[in-house]
Each structure stands twice: as structure tokens, then as C-alpha cells.
């Protein structure tokens, strides 16, 4: 009787293990057309270069990357709250340089040639306006004319 019970328990464990393995295999399968996702790095190569230059220029500061604009800019409540919030809701900034208490020293944007397109110009203008009204200094640099560590130190400290 003991051996029959052990055999049944063993069989049950094998079935559970097979079920778990099947779920793992299903999770590893290629996603269907409904889920066209893939992994990527949070920073482009030029952004990575600038990130490390900012860290070197301002070692006493915290450098945050790819920060959602609503984390930096609030919207006062009122009749047009939703409209105003929607103007910043899906926007991000490349870098935020903060003191250790998270006081914002500078917001830094790295612009490539796509920022000359009319839609990007409008988006950048809206972003600049929101940041300016919130009291956050914004610095913009071009990817083809990346600032040196010393130029960053001077620009951020100004």
C-alpha cells in the first residue's frame, strides 16, 4: 500500500513538473503579432556618451536618464487641467541633473537631426515652455556637436 501511494505521489509530481515545463516553454515562444515587443537599451549610443560626460562633469550630482516630464512638471487644477496635462503626458527628457536632495540643477536634451522636423520642433517648444514655467533650466545640445566635460561643467553651473 505504501509503495502504491508513493508511486501515485511520484506520478503526480511528474505531471506537475511537466505542466510547469510546458508553461516555461510557452513563455519563451516568439510573441504573436499582437505583441511585437523586443528588448532595447534605455539610452542610445550618443546619449550614453553624454551621460558619462555629465557624470564626470558633475560628480557631486545625481544624473537621471529618460525621465517622464510629468515627474518634473505639475499641472495646476482647473478647467483646462486635462488639456494641459495631455500636452506633457507622453513626453520625456533625456537627462535631469540633481543635487543629492533631488533639487533640479539642469534638464539636458540631446537633439539629433530629427529635431528639425516640424512635429519635433512643436514638441520641443512645448517641453521647453513647460520646463521654463516650472522653473527648471534646460540645456540643449546637438549630437553632432557634443559638449566636452568642461563645457558641460560650465553650462550646468551657469
Structure description:
This protein is α+β, with helices and mostly antiparallel strands and 158 residues long. It has one domain (45-157): Trna Endonuclease, Chain: A, domain 1 (3-Layer(aba) Sandwich). It is built from 5 helices and 4 strands, in the order H-H-E-H-E-E-H-E-H. A 4-stranded mixed β-sheet has the order 1-2-3-4, sandwiched between helices. Helix 2 (45-57) crosses helix 5 (149-157). The longest helix is centred in the first third of the chain and has 27 residues, at 2-28. The protein is elongated and about 85 Å long. The protein starts with a helix and ends with a helix.
Which terms summarize this structure?
158 residues, alpha+beta, Trna Endonuclease, Chain: A, domain 1, four-stranded mixed β-sheet, 5 helices, 46% helix
